[in-house]
Design goal:
Blueprint: H1 10-21, H2 26-38, H3 43-53, H4 61-73, H5 93-105, H6 110-120, H7 127-141
């Protein structure tokens, strides 16, 4: 972060005055530590600091106003709304109709019974299995 004037740091000044006013506050201590380590605070952390600083009478109003301006300058990041879950697998109704048609004529057909079990368990039928079903359907229509 580049500052216009290196000797003016409002956030650091507010943090130091808050540490003097509330030396037992772990929140202010953690903010001060993070500011020294990382060189900045997030928008939410700055908002929390501002809320605490507004309760302290020793902090000048111009420092609070500058801190508020810094907060307003920062972008607000919002999470996108959760998307509606989509089904991983959608049943192909034509395949189900083919299976039912074959099983009407031949209810004990083992391969078709196996494919019906896979279809009902929402397992994906391979292209070879689908072509076998269509072939069986054509044979039965004759």
């Amino acid at each position: 972060m580049q500052r216009k004037k290196a000797d003016v740091d409002v956030v650091r000044d507010v943090l130091q005055q808050m540490l003097l006013a509330r030396p037992d506050s772990t929140f202010i201590k953690s903010l001060a530590f993070q500011y020294e380590e990382r060189g900045g605070l997030s928008k939410k952390q700055l908002e929390g600091l501002l809320q605490k600083a507004m309760k302290v009478a020793e902090i000048p109003e111009h420092k609070l106003a500058t801190l508020e301006a810094i907060i307003l300058k920062k972008p607000t990041r919002e999470r996108a709304a959760a998307s509606a879950p989509t089904a991983f697998f959608t049943k192909d109704e034509t395949i189900g109709a083919i299976i039912d048609a074959i099983l009407e004529k031949y209810p004990q057909h083992k391969q078709v019974l196996f494919l019906k079990a896979k279809y009902e368990n929402n397992e994906i039928l391979s292209p070879a299995e689908i072509t076998d079903l269509k072939r069986l359907e054509k044979v039965l229509k004759k």
